[in-house]
Automatic annotation (TrEMBL):
Gene3D superfamilies: Bit1. It comes from the Bacteria. This is DUF2000 domain-containing protein. Pfam families: DUF2000. It comes from Paraburkholderia steynii.
């Protein structure tokens, strides 16, 4: 099965389960700008994979429209690099996982990013951020010990 087909299968499964929680966990050692970038990359991909989580457009009293936003919120938490790797492994069986490997900020274009990740095996990858979408109780158990990124 192709990566794209696997991703769609996961999304279809998540739609059927009606995920209730979405969180992003970022490497606590990142500078604020790098952490914001990592969280944004993960959030963008989560939004693409879970478009059903986007709420109805917002309308002002004069009719001005604004795009819909996620109504369930997205806490951004912090963890060590080791905790991110462990969290990713623990989460794969319970929810949809979007991970952002360190190579994403170490390369200057997507082809170089693809090549850098392709040169490594799964256990040797390290992550800057992980996004999770799934049932509230599962996500809560997985991230309950992490503090807000500040």
């Amino acid at each position: 099965m192709s990566l794209q087909a696997e991703a769609q299968s996961l999304v279809d499964t998540e739609v059927a389960r009606k995920p209730e929680r979405c969180v992003i966990v970022v490497d606590a050692a990142l500078a604020p700008g790098k952490a914001s970038n990592a969280a944004a990359v993960v959030a963008f991909t989560l939004g693409q994979r879970h478009s059903h989580l986007v709420g109805a457009p917002l309308r002002e009293s004069d009719g001005t429209a604004h795009p819909g936003l996620i109504p369930i919120g997205i806490p951004v938490l912090k963890a060590t690099a080791q905790q991110l790797s462990e969290l990713r492994q623990k989460s794969l069986a319970h929810c949809d996982v979007v991970d952002f490997p360190v190579q994403g900020q170490a390369t200057t274009d997507y082809d170089a990013f693809l090549d850098a990740v392709n040169a490594l095996s799964g256990p040797s990858l390290q992550y800057l951020a992980i996004g999770l979408v799934g049932p509230r109780n599962r996500i809560g158990k997985l991230v309950g010990g992490f503090a807000l990124f500040a």
